[in-house]
Amino acid sequence: MRDSAVAVIGGGAWGLALAAAAARTGRPALVHSRRTLNGALPQGVTQAQDLREAAGRARLIVFAVPSTVAREVARRLGDFVDGRHYLVHGTRGLATYAASNELCTIAEVLREETPVRRLGALGGPVLPEDLAAGRPSIMVSGSSFPEVNDAVRDAFVGPSLRLYCTDDLRGLEWASALVGCLAIAVGYAQAVGLSGGLIAALISRGVQEAGKIASAAGGEERTLLGLAGYGDLLASVEQRERPEILLGAALAKGRSLEDAMRDAKLRVEAVELIPRVLAWAAHHKVSVPIFAAMANGVLASRAPDLIVHDLMTAPIEDRG
């Protein structure tokens, strides 16, 4: 695997950053994008003409497209991949099953739309701009197949990138999606001037809620206690350019949701996901007051003091 190419599907900031990290290990790195990238390509990265070329040259394929187009792109990719491939995604979002409107992970979409079975996901407290620039970064790779985690390690690990691995693929996927939601709340809380103690409480209770959700979805609650959960969310406190933080801060300053999304610069998967997670939690009888406050307060442009009052006066359901 060390000498084989890595193909990244998706020419956005995240996809290009992943391709740049792979190229720094000295191996061939390809990017497939529907738009011509030319000058946007990182050093050592070439653009694949089509999905056929990407799949033909690489055994490890990294799927880095938004959740809204994941099924469409996966269906097209499915014509060119087979059981020899490893397919790993880095999407901070969830999708829906083909036969229902029920939330599912991107790996489940890839399983439905391609013949690949050795699947994985990327997560953790890493920013595209840090990865692209070669600044020290940490990622998490999740797969139930050890050889997939090994392939990701071979493809990306170098002096500036450290990788931790887990076999809890589903937990990692839900963690990445839910932390993206909670990061909006962190950006909002910082911008309205909440104290460090209240922000710490928000993070702690938010991760606990996310852990309950992930567990109900079939993942492991403990995954949220590591780099994919706590680590990723704690990092957001200082990651002021993170899109979710920018969006939360803009909403706190009274910007409309549309304007706040423009301020975030990159697409924020969590905006569409938060109300769907709230509905999913209600259906599965999981109590999530912080996610409810985000859906019905933050994204609904409710006054900050009313949101804080509701959270401070809500019934305490456990001992913390």
Tags for this entry?
320 residues, alpha/beta, Rossmann fold, N-(1-d-carboxylethyl)-l-norvaline Dehydrogenase, domain 2, 2 domains, 13% strand, globular
Description of the molecule:
The chain is built from 14 helices and ten strands. The model has no long low-confidence stretch (mean pLDDT 93). It folds into two domains: 163 residues, 3-Layer(aba) Sandwich (Rossmann fold), CATH 3.40.50; 143 residues, N-(1-d-carboxylethyl)-l-norvaline Dehydrogenase, domain 2 (Orthogonal Bundle). The radius of gyration is 19 Å and the shape is globular. Helix content is 50%, strand content 13%.
SSE map:
Elements: E1 5-9, H1 13-24, E2 29-32, E3 45-47, H2 51-57, E4 58-63, H3 67-77, E5 86-89, E6 95-96, E7 103-104, H4 106-113, E8 119-123, H5 128-133, E9 137-142, H6 146-156, E10 161-166, H7 169-191, H8 196-216, H9 227-236, H10 243-252, H11 257-263, H12 270-283, H13 289-298, H14 304-313
Parallel strand pairs: 1-2, 1-4, 2-3, 4-5, 5-8, 9-10
Antiparallel strand pairs: 6-7, 8-9
Helix pairs in contact: 3-4, 7-8, 7-9, 7-10, 7-12, 8-9, 10-11, 12-13, 13-14
From the spread of the alpha carbons, the general shape counts as globular
- Report how far apart the termini are: 46 Å
Q: Report the strand count.
A: 10
What is the gyration radius calculated from CA atoms? 19 Å
Would you tell me the structural class of the helices and strands? alpha/beta
Give the number of helices: 14
Low-confidence stretches are: none
Percentage of residues in helical conformation: 40-55%
Q: Tell me what portion of residues adopts beta-strand conformation.
A: 5-15%
Named CATH topology of the largest domain? Rossmann fold
Average pLDDT level: 93
Topology order in helix (H) and strand (E) letters: EHEEHEHEEEHEHEHEHHHHHHHH
Please give the order of strands in the largest beta sheet.
3-2-1-4-5-8-9-10
CATH class of the largest domain: Alpha Beta
What name goes with the CATH superfamily of the largest domain?
NAD(P)-binding Rossmann-like Domain
Largest sheet properties: 8 strands, mixed
Q: Specify the CATH architecture of the largest domain.
A: 3-Layer(aba) Sandwich
Number of domains: 2
**Multimeric status of the protein:** single chain
